[in-house]
Give the backbone structure.
Amino acid sequence: MMRKGSLWGLIFILLLAILSGCSGKDTPSSGKESGETKGGDSPKEPVELSFWYGWTGPEGEALEKLIKKWNDANPDIKVKGLSQSDYQKQLTAITGGNPPDVASNFGKDVVPWGERGAMMPLDDYIKKDNVDLGDFVPAALSSSQSQGKTYAIPIAMHVSMLFYNKDMLEKAGLNGPPETMGQLKEYIAKLSVKENGGKLQQLGLWPGVDAFTFSYSYGGSFYDADKKQVTPDHAGVKAAIEFGKGIWDQFGSKELDRFASGLGQYMSPQNPFFTGKYAMTIDGEWLPTFIKQFAPNLKYGIAPIPYDDNNPNLKNPGNVTTSVFYIPKGVKHPDESWKFLKWITEPEQMAEFTAAIGNLPTRTSLQTHEIYKDVPGFKEFLQYSSSPNLRSFPATTFSSEYMTEFSTQYNAILRGEVSVDEGLKRVKDKIQPLVK
Amino acid sequence: MKDSISGQTSLRRRGWTRREWHYFWLGLIFASPWIIGFLIFTVYPFFSSLYFSLTEYDLFNAPRWVGMDNYKAIMKDHNFYKSISNTLFMAFISVPITLFSSLLIAMLLNFKVKGINYYRTIFYLPAVIPSVASALLWTWMLNPDFGLVNIFLRWAGLPDPAWLLDPQFTKPSLILMGLWGSGAGALIFLAALQGVPQTYYEAAQVDGANWWHRFWKITVPALSPIILFQLIMGLIGAFQIFTESYILAGGKSNGGSLGGPGQSLLFYAVNLYQEAFMNLKMGYASALAWILFIIVMLITLLVLKTSKRWVYYGGE
């Protein structure tokens, strides 16, 4: 019997060890709390917020500067920043019940996450504190909103424009950038050079570039909210795909793959646009900053995205994407989290941050701010960001899946694995059942 | 002897003695870390994924029962078929090739030449390198413009494909990478080769058997249990292939979707990851996982069943 008793004792100790191992995480903090309330004079203990953001390197440092500014001014709410570019980890933390107090994300994830309950709706706070949502660029704000709820505040926005190499255009006898899609097509033909038995040496514009941007050039739309229909087969979307396909087929997959394989890294002096492998490219507002850094001697121009020849009212089209801040579901101090979120998206902080990292601000009131005076290319981009023809991909619960599937099928169409109609039908067949 | 046997049987009739119970509990306690781990980390997830596969579950909201809807949707999903065909290609083409090359390397490393230990180390080295690092290394090796592989091919006057960019060559690229790492399998074959009694070969040589006869009639049968083991492990590995595709064909270059050019590297596990963690369809992904489980189990059973015909265990 003694032996049996010692055996149960062993089991007991083992269980105890397991249990204490599980709860070990909470013990020190609760001990600290009780200790401080006993001894301290201040009744209110400073709240510590964890803030996960996706920026790294110099961009992360710019954000840390803001965090320091906040901490100096607010001793009662201490914010601790953590650079965490893998947004998948936020999901794990939220579902695990231990989320960061404030976090950054891409605009395209806001509604899928928000509608599923991973993000806290901010409307009550916005109302209480009279945050003027009217100051935000509509296309940027709309990606954070769904069914009357706002799940995140966009801090920065991105829009693409047409970059062109002035020397190469001049050499080809072209005067100024193309304005319409028809002209763009001619430009690409003239600016693409084959040498040595048909080997592509230089390309006017990479044909697989951006079906979303060009869809808006043709007035395309991806979702009919009234009919609850996904519309990858919308005439405008189809026209954009056919445009890309037309250029792709001029050269063929084999030649393009060969050409692409010799191209250098995007974030380096070997970027194909910097080295003259591409005469034109569609890229975002950060590119001029890169050019200044990697290819200071490049003579380039920034022009509006070309539009459908038959629809002059579609002038200055574009695809807007955003970076946002949000409060995850289940945070312990929502009021304090909001205070910080509200502060960091105020005009002053937004200007400081976006100017430092070369991103566009989402507030219209900032578009004339002098802080952007020295950011290369921002004269053109700030002006462009108020164009009424900017669109963003429709914010729905299934939007990230929709974009993935669309890109996949676009790729298959370009490579001739499926016809245009069949590829778009596949997108529709896969996504339409997700509409609720 | 007789006494102890009859004593045991009578004991069994009476049930366990206190001593036996004691050892039983003691054994359980020593095994308990594994038992608890197995229950929590294997049995529980196993059955909960079966449950989730019959629901619509996005991590945040409670799972909603949908019955067989996920499985029905999978049957209509072209990504599913694409991923199956890509994966089967790797299983049925890459695995035999890698197996054969491992065996070949093992036989070469079995020769008694000077410095053989260095050769063995060199061939085993790639297996030590983490798969992410080797995948990154191979993106350089296979770069169509300045990669070593194409420099050599051009020098030899052979066609130089665009390896990782051309949908027709992406999977062969992976096979090439796999061959580079076949030293790990070769090591196991080598150990087995050294267990084959030399007397067999000597006897065969006396009987006038040539190299091929000795290989085919002695080496292969003697190694057959190891071949079976490597084949099954290789097949299971092929069905779970993920890292190489994720690194080589990841994200940005393809407009955010995984799977590489023309989805030629969309393997089963990659598709599953995409559905679960990018599209937040945990129920759908669980159903995919169960289909994978059934496929792998069936193929393994099939291999085991046919193996009776070609695997020889010593002493039989």
Observations:
- The longest helix of chain B spans residues 18-52.
